[in-house]
Structures are given as C-alpha cells and as structure tokens.
Amino acid sequence: MELYELTIHEMNELLKARKVSSVEAVQSCLARIEATDTRVNAFITITGDEALKAAAAADQQIAAGNIHSLTGVPLALKDIFVTKGIRTTCASKMLDNYIPPYDSTSWLKLKDCGAVMLGKLNQDEFAMGSSCENSAYGPTRNPWNSECIPGGSSGGSAAAVAAQQAIATLGTDTGGSIRQPASHCGCVGLKPTYGRVSRYGVIAYASSLDQVGPVTRDVTDAAIMLGTVAGHDPLDSTSVAMPVPDYTRSLLSDVKGMKIALPKEYFIDGLDPDVQKAMDAAIETYRKLGAEIVEITLPHTDYAVACYYLIATAEASSNLARYEGVRFGHRAAEAKNLLEMFMKSRAEGFGAEVKRRIMLGTYALSSGYYDAYYLKAQKVRTLIMQDFLKAFEGVDVILTPVAPTPAFKIGEKTSDPLQMYLSDIFTIPVNLAGTCGISVPAGISQSGLPIGLQLIGRPFGEETIIRAAYAFEQATEWQKQKAKL
Amino acid sequence: MKYQPVIGLEVHVQLKTNTKIFCGCSTQFGASPNSQTCPVCLGLPGALPVLNKKVVEYAIKAGLATNCAISPRSIFARKNYFYPDLPKGYQISQYELPICVGGHLDIDGEWGTKRIGITRIHMEEDAGKLVHSDIPGLGGGSGVDLNRACTPLLEIVSEPDIRTADEAVAYLKKLHQIVVYLGICDGNMEEGSFRCDANVSVMPVGSDKFGTRTETKNVNSFRFVKQAIEHEIERQIELIEDGGKVIQETRLFDPNTGETRSMRGKEEAHDYRYFPDPDLVPLVISNDWVEDTRLSLPELPEAKFARYQSDLGLTPYDAEVLTATRELAEYFESCLTAGAQPKMAANWAMGEVTRGLNDAGLSISDCPVTPLQLVELLQLIEKGTVSGKIAKTVFDELWQNGGTAAKIVEEKGLVQVSDTGEIEKIIDEIMAANMGQVEEYRGGKDKVFGFFVGQVMRASKGKANPAVVNELLVKKLKG
Ligand SMILES: [Zn+2]
Q1: How many domains does chain A have?
Q2: Quick check: is B260 in a domain?
Q3: Where is the Asn/Gln amidotransferase domain (chain B) (predicted)?
Q4: Contact A170/B at CB under 8 A
Q5: Minimal Cα–Cα distance from B82 to chain A, Å?
Q6: Nearest CA in chain B to A375
Q7: How many CB atoms lie within 10 A of CB B446?
Q8: Which of B149, B241, B440, B449 could join B128 via S-S bond, C-beta 3.0 to 4.6 A?
C-alpha cells in the first residue's frame, strides 16, 4: 500500500509509531500528483518545496513527542482560502497574480497542528458552479471517469482526495459545494452549521451561506478535520462562541433508536434510478441497524433553488465589487479613464458564470426590485429554516440524496445554466437553513460513478450526523471503493 | 413671490477612537500613506469586519446627548458604489435600522428658542483618499491612501426644520459643542473631523410642499456653511424666478468664490443597492448598556449654562462664555474646587487666562497657569495682599516662569501698601509738588482727583492699596 492511499488516522498511527516520516508521506503524495494531475487537473498551484520543508519540521515535532492527529499529514486547500505568500487565485483570471499577505483562520489552525499543505486546488471561479468547469485554469476531471465532472464548486478538493493526491482537503460549501462533489467523487464531505467554522480568509462568494468544511476518505477523518478547524474566531463576527466537542467521540456504530426522516419532497419521480436504488438500500441498512425511519415534509423545498439564486447572487454582486483593478489582481491595460479601467478590468478578469451571477444579484438589489426579489427571498429563507427546525423537533437526522444524478459529462450542462443550477437542489436548502449536512458514499451507478447519501442534522448537530454517517460506513463497503486512475 | 428655504443637515462626526471601526488599525491623523492598514481596511479578499465596541459606546453617548432613543437592535448595511478610494466597492453603514432615532436640539438666537428635530444617528466607515500629485514612483499619476479607510464616523441627520443659514450655523455649533464635550470627537474641522452636507430647497411662503433639494457636500467650517446655504438659497430662487427648475443633485462648495457648483449630473445618479451586511450580525444593545453609558455622560453645556446662573449667580453672558468649551468650563470649575470665589474666577478665566491663551495660540489644556496657581493669586487679592493691578503682573510672571503667587509677590516686593502713614507721606509730597492742581480741585474741578490717584500709584510702584489711597486723598485734598 502506498502512503498516499492512507487516511488521516491511518497515517497518524504510522507517524506516531515512527514507521514512516512526514517527508516520505509528502514525497509519496507529490509523486502521485505528478503522475495523475495532468489527467485530473485538481491543482492550480503545487507547493512542493514548501511542503517538504514543512514535512521536515513536522518530523522534528514528532521526534520531540509532540504529535496531533494532523501533524505531518499532507493536505491541500481549495484555492479560495488565502495563504500568506502563496498565490491564491479563487480560480479566476482576476486573481491570477494575487499573493495574499495573510493566512485564513482555517489554514492557520491546520498549520498550527503541523499539517502540511501540498498546494491549492481547482474550483469553480469564486465558488460559482456545480461542476468545476468554470475555472480560469480549465476544468477538473472526475477521477472515476475523466469524461465526467467532479462536481463543484469544490471539485478540486473532492477530486484530489478521490485521486489519492492528498490525504484530505478543505473546501467551502455555499449551496452544496462540498457535499455534491464529495458525492460525485466517492468521498466524505461535511458542511458544518453556519458559524461553526471561521470564514476569515475565505474569499467570499455569498457571505450568509458560505461555510468551510472537509473532504475526506472516511467519516473518521471528517471528524478529525472538523474538530481542528471549528470554533469561534474573534476575526469573524458570524462565527459562534460555542465550545467545540471532540467529534471523534461520536464515531459509534450504534444508531439504535435514532429517528431518521425521509422528506417526501426529496424523493421525487425524476430522481435517477441508480440514485433511488442507492437511497432505498441505505434506508434498509439503517432499518437493520435499528434506526426508526419516518416520513416528514419540508413544504418550502420547491422554492429553495430560486431563493438561493437571489440571495447568493445579491451577496456575490457586492462581495465581488472589490475586484476592480485598483489595488490587486487583474488591471486592464490601456484604459483611458477610471470608469473604463473598472469596466475593462472586470470584463476581462471575470468568467461568464461570475458575470452572470453579478448581473443577477445587481438586478435583485436594484431599487424598485429589492422588495420583490431580495426581501421576498429572505422571507422564503426564513420559512425554509422553520421547516427544518420544525422537522427536528421530532427527528434526529434527515436522509436525502445529495444530487439528483451521478456526475454528468463535462460540457453537458454548460449551455443550460438553469439545468446546472438544479443539480444542487437537494443541498441548497441546508445552506439556506444554516444547518449541517454530510455526504457519504452510498453506492455506485451502473456506469461506475459514485453515489452519495446526504444526512442533515439540526443546527450544531454535527455529532449526530457524524455518528449516523459512521454507522453507515461501518455497515457498508462503499467507502472502500476507489477510483481507478 | 416670497420664498421660504427649507434646510436639513447631515453632519459627519469622526470619532476619536484609537482604532478603526472594523479593524485594529490606528486612526492617528497624518501618518505616511497606507502605513495604517490591514487586510480588513484594505478590503482584501477574505477579510471580514469586526465591530469596535468603543464606536457603539460613542454613538450611544451622542444619541443620549441629543435626546434620541437608542435602538435595542440595529443593523449594518452595505452601500454599494465604485470609487477608487472605497476598498471593498461598498461602504458599511447603517440604513434601515440605525442605532439612534428621533432626537432633537434646541437652538437659541434672535428667533428665540427653536427645536430642531434629529431624524437619526448612524455609524459608518469612512473611505480613503485620493492623492493626485507627482508622487515618486507613480509617474505623475494618482495614488490611493487608505489610512483613513474604515475610520469610524457618526452621521447625524436633522429633520428639515431649519429655515435660515443662521439657524443652520447655530445648530451646527451646538452639535459641535456637544460632541466635543462628550469627548467623542476632536472637533477639528480643518482636518475634516466635523463636516456637514447641507440639503437646501426653497418653496413659496405658505406652501406646505417642499421644493426640489440639492445637497452640498463636505462643508467644513461654520462660515462656509453659512455662505454655502445662503448662496444655494439665492441661486435656487433666481433659477425659479427665471422660469427654471431646480434639479436634485450633489453640489460642491468652493471657498474661493463662496459659491456652490454641480458635482455630478443626473445621469450618474447612484443606486446604492443597500442591503444588510451579511458579515456583521445585528447589533443588540441592552438597556443596561444604555443606562451605564448615561451615567458616564459629562454635564452637558446646556445644563452647565443653567447651573452657572442659578447656583453660582453668574450672568448669562459669563455662563455662555465659560461653557463654550468643556476645557474652559473645567478650568473654571477647578478654580472653584480650589476655593475661588465664582465671579472672580469667572472674570479671570474669561479675562487674563483667555487673553494669554489667544496671544500664545495655546489651547486651555496647555495653559501654563494651573487653576491652583491662579486661585492662590486670587486669594492674595481677596486678602488685600496685592491689588488687582499688581495681580496682573504676578499673573504674567506665573505665565512666563511658573512658581507660586505668594513667592513672586514676596521676591519682587509687590506686597500692597495699606499702611496709612506711608501712603500719607507720599500724598503729602505729591500735593506739595502739584499745588496748582490742588487749587484746581479745591476750586471744584473733580476730574483732577484721578490725576492724584495716578501719581500716588506711580510713586508707590502700584503697591499702594487703592482703597486707602482714595480715602486719604479725599480727606487731604479737601484740606
Ligand atoms: Zn485595518
């Protein structure tokens, strides 16, 4: 077995026992990246030299007996996390030459544990997309089938884990951007409750929806990663001052008596038969494990996608206003005056999807339309939130598919944005409600693509979904399936 | 036709906090460009604002001092527009739910007492500034200095209750006095710490429908505000009389011409697309916080003005002068604490002290004569040790070289002479030398009396007790 194939906890055992060194682990991953990334295109920037240096430092730390679960473990970050002195592009031409002067809180926390960063991962530009095709650095390919998309926007984060290039990665999830690519790539993807993890240093797409989370090989690793990055950050006013539980204590195979709910709005006729089959099997597994399966209704589900695209684009139109060529990033050459400089820089720097969403959001916030669109969407959002809170009065976990279909072909939906937007239909409500969700491998389609299962928990109910996900993982073999690259 | 102006003011008050409103950078004025910046105030990708609690406290103070209600829950909004000195492409401000609402100030003047409503007070961040010059390395281009970006401002918005430029100035002066008294603003108008936008419209007298208003931006002196408003009223009336129409626009005041001019056309009218800032949670202010802040408020000028008259027996004029600035009032009150008699302390604070400060171009916080030093001197006058005139000499000495009044009087031999024998001797000599004037006086020419007083004082080098001199002179001259 190669070192790059290990999970965090497996590698930790070996490092602790001094059977391998972090330098060896990093070398193994770098070689794997070298061998596979021309096909996958998961990385925008590879920081091999820095990684080897950090690995050597981690080895010294381990030799001194100072080891955390992540010490010396090779990780990679979505290129949306700013990293001091290391180019951070957000997959946009706009930030092609941008080198941040500071570190994001999440990366700092990982670094403090001695984790090693291999590089920065591909994504949809400014996290806008569901396929990882909207990148200034070309699309990432699904390691299970290079003709397919890996999902988005954290497509690089999921693909790197599935292609065994990095042991685990961090992504961000605004409307499903961790769970959906994790599902398409056969990984575990966790979107924590809004406010659980600091957003400081995460390049904002839609501030009220964005949340940081891990993409990993198994549920145990997700618990370890979440436990490391979670917690209050004085630099992020929206992060919540609640103690961080030890999530690894929730890794129990027991779900006896747990009430698992199936929202009827999520099991619709149009669902892909392979996905439906995987869901049926998963429900049966839980039943066998002693969970109680109940049906519920989340009545405002139908409005979630429309609501999301109003709120997310409105916030994005404002968040992306700072990219105008004045202080950093791309500046158009030969602009004749200031206004032209703003307009040309933005016209040249942003890709089509980003422009589409900025236009949408600008429109939604315009005077005369604000009440009809943005304000209405906020009201719908409240209703969706209430749907969930009401549901959680009676149940522990909500079980749904992650996506309506397995990964689709590259280019298949690029000409039809609306069709593309619908691929996040099952993940978006969780972001609107601000609660947590996890995606775990639950099947393989007839065409050989992974299918994920989504478990949704109540706000700050990460322990419960981790426990339910772990029990499922222990009872099935899906997590052991690997992409053949 | 006669016209009635309608004026509303938006005052920007830069708060005297040590750090900026959403980050820990210093707010010190005059540092080298961009030396006081961080990812947050530079608007770098990924950076997030964190509200400075001190700013909230200052806003509550301003609200309480202007009779506003403090909102238990207020919200920060984004005001979106593009400008190179605005790092994020939006300004964080308060829009729909500001921190203070519904206050008022009473202004006094030839119109009597008039109440000006205060619509709201909200908190916001300032933008940076553009520097257009031959900056080395810029090749003659423009630079952006973001030291000022993210410095905390309060915007205090009045109701359109003001009707003349003089009322506007009275309102502004009162507001200025209050924020400086509160210690939340340095009041420096030249540096832009206190500046105002004037909304002016005119309507026919008797009409209840306001005319179209213009907004004159960033006027930063009381004199300019008066000029700008007067010019704008005149311009609008002329325009309407000539059959034209006032267009709603932003105007700039030119101090060189005393006129306002259009800043941007209608076609550039902004849609700011305000919406609640998702990076900042709603601001919740407890009643306890408001009440604690209320207790920490200093006595405000209005209350002091009343108390000086009722408790200290000062004239309205004295009370007004002494309460004009918090520092002068505090100086005066320190004198009282040290045991001075109010009227005397008032006269000296308004007289010698103020004069000295003006001559030296000093502010009262730098006054070389402390209240304690002054009071010692005043007590020497009360005891009759020195005359009022000599006291001024002693005061000058204190100002120049410090020390104590008693010591100066002793060292310079300035003790007042009240010994009748000694004074009688001087009078006799002077009368003997000026028999002509003695005759004149005795012939009924009372005016000559002053001549004798002057002579005696000069001969005694000012040390003779004037009361004793008067008494003896009358007796001797009458023979
Ligand atoms: Zn700063």
Answers
A1: 1
A2: yes
A3: 330-477
A4: no
A5: 7
A6: B275
A7: 9
A8: B149
Spatial distance between the Cα atoms of A182 and A311, rounded to a whole number of angstroms:
24
For residue B242, the tally of other CB atoms under 10 A from its CB is 7
Q: How far is the CA of A343 from the centre of ligand 1 (A)?
A: 27
Is residue A452 assigned to a domain? no
Could you report the predicted ipTM of this complex, rounded to two decimals? 0.96
pLDDT digits (tens, 9 = 90+) for A438-447: 999 999 999 9
Tell me whether residue A357 is in a domain: no
CA distance B327 to B180: 10
User: Which of residues B386, B411, B436 is at a domain's end?
Assistant: B411
Query: In this complex, do A200 and B46 lie within 8 Å of one another by their Cβ atoms?
Result: yes
**Residue B240, in any domain of the structure:** yes
Q: Which token pair is A318? A: 């404002």
- Residue B294 maps to a domain: no
**pLDDT digits over A446-465, tens only?**
999 999 999 999 999 999 99
Query: What residue type is assigned to position B434 of the chain?
Result: N
CB pairs under 8 A between A and B: 98
B21 touches chain A (CB under 8 A): no
- Note the pLDDT tens digit of each residue in B30-54: 899 999 999 999 999 999 999 999 9
Same domain, B275 and B339: no
Q: Does B153 lie in the same domain as B117?
A: yes
Q: Check if A207 contacts B (Cβ < 8 Å).
A: yes
Q: How far is the CA of B150 from the centre of ligand 1 (A)?
A: 7
Q: H or E segment at A457?
A: strand A450-457
**Residues in chain A closer than 8 A to B84 (CB atoms):** 324, 326, 338
Query: Chain B 57-96, CB below 8 Å of chain A: which residues?
Result: 78, 80, 82, 84, 87-90
CA dihedral B87, B132, A95, A321 (to 10 degrees): 40
Per the structure, how many domains does chain B have?
Answer: 3
Same domain, B141 and B91: yes
Give the structural domain span for A25: 3-253
Q: B273 vs A317: CB contact, 8 Å cut-off? A: yes
Given B365, B386, B411, the domain boundary residue is: B411
Q: What is the pLDDT of residue B139?
A: 67
At A324, list the tokens: 């105008």
Mean pLDDT over the full length of chain A: 97
**Are the C-beta atoms of residues B463 and B471 closer than 8 Å to each other?**
no
Q: Which CATH number goes with the domain that contains A158?
A: 3.90.1300.10
